[in-house]
Specification:
The protein is mainly α. Helices cover 77% and strands 0% of the residues. Helix 4 crosses helix 5, helix 4 runs parallel beside helix 6 and helix 7 crosses helix 10.
């Protein structure tokens, strides 16, 4: 397994059934445009508000000790975008975003509690952690090999590095592809959702 595959796997939370169900809706360009329109009628100002909101959401989850704060921030934005695309009116975006973030945080806490309970009450019939990890990695390799090479390079490159290096890597990747960082983020999110669904399907078939 290459370094990039390992980093992608390490960056992906172990999704429960409920978490997988949450991710079925995918952010489209149309939904993203409606989200920006809800933030401000002027596109550039809306983009600045979006970036500031995402940064604040990342800090919101960081301060609460959540793993993968960027992913949780993107999930929050996805949920808001979904509601706006379905016709819901958002009059105070800042309050609305953080209301959704607080609900997501409660879900994360419940999932943590379930995971802790499962760790404290292991079942003899369940596979070992090592076997589970190996099966997941095998499925991840299978799913990565099932997508186009340029998509594979994009998703692996997107998750390479740590903290500031990861941010620089993503900007370099966006510059190389000659696309805005927001477009890169949307593409990576779509690919990640596609891969997560593929991995879960692969694991279910192997069970």
């Amino acid at each position: 397994m290459g370094r990039g595959e390992s980093e992608l796997e390490n960056s992906s939370p172990r999704l429960s059934v409920s978490a997988t169900a949450r991710r079925k809706w995918t952010l489209t360009q149309e939904a993203f445009d409606k989200l920006l329109q809800a933030l401000d009628a002027e596109r550039e100002r809306a983009g600045n508000i979006y970036q500031e909101t995402r940064s604040n959401l990342i800090r919101f989850f960081e301060w609460r000790g959540c793993p993968f704060p960027e992913d949780h921030a993107d999930e929050t934005i996805n949920r808001v975008a979904k509601r706006i695309s379905e016709g819901e009116e958002v009059r105070e975006p800042a309050k609305y975003f953080f209301g959704v973030a607080r609900l997501l945080f409660l879900e994360i806490q419940k999932e943590r509690a379930r995971e802790l309970h499962a760790l404290n009450n292991p079942r003899e019939t369940e596979p070992s952690s090592y076997e589970s990890d190996e099966a997941r990695l095998d499925c991840l390799r299978h799913c990565l090999n099932g997508i186009a090479l340029d998509q594979r390079d994009l998703i692996i490159g997107y998750y390479q590095g740590e903290k500031s290096n990861k941010i620089r890597n993503r900007q370099t990747l966006a510059d190389t592809l000659q696309i805005p960082i927001n477009t890169l983020r949307m593409r990576a999110l779509r690919l990640r959702e596609q891969l997560e669904a593929c991995v879960e399907n692969c694991l279910n078939k192997a069970a």
